[in-house]
Design goal:
mainly alpha
Length: 153
């Protein structure tokens, strides 16, 4: 099958353009150096600063006992009546601490009624202060989206 005249003309122009050497417009760019500045602090501090800079609230906890106490105190201070959580380990920790207002329902309408949602994450991005959530988690992204997590007072 023979190519059409206009198609062949275009392909010929492209071949000629590819054969011609063109000088690099930015030949003085350093492609070997890092584009990011080296962190002056540990990843934890960098994440905390960037996360709070985005409006997040950060609490560093040494262990699960301190974490469950911090969540209990936060729940009490904010007056949360319903907390949505699907992770069995977190639920057990919070129930041992005395929080019995935990909803494990996967129903979107019930999750919207919760005052807060507690979920695991895949990781934290120190450089940007971001939190990596994924659909591979048992709750997906639903618990991070549906319950409003804000001061209602």
């Amino acid at each position: 099958m023979k190519a059409s005249g206009s198609k062949e003309k275009i392909l010929t122009r492209i071949r000629k353009a590819l054969d011609q050497k063109v000088p690099q417009p930015f030949s003085n760019i350093d492609n070997q150096s890092s584009i990011y500045t080296a962190p002056t602090e540990g990843a934890e501090m960098t994440f905390a600063k960037n996360f709070t800079g985005l409006g997040g609230r950060f609490m560093y906890c040494e262990d699960t006992a301190e974490m469950s106490q911090a969540i209990f105190d936060l729940s009490t201070a904010k007056g949360w009546n319903q907390i949505a959580c699907w992770d069995d380990n977190i639920i057990r920790l919070l129930e041992r601490k005395g929080l019995n207002n935990i909803s494990t329902s996967h129903d979107n309408d019930l999750m919207k009624l919760a005052d807060a949602g507690i979920t695991l994450c895949e990781g934290l991005v120190a450089r940007t202060g971001g939190i990596l959530l994924s659909s591979s988690l048992n709750c997906g992204r639903a618990l991070s989206i549906l319950p409003p997590v804000q001061d209602r007072k």
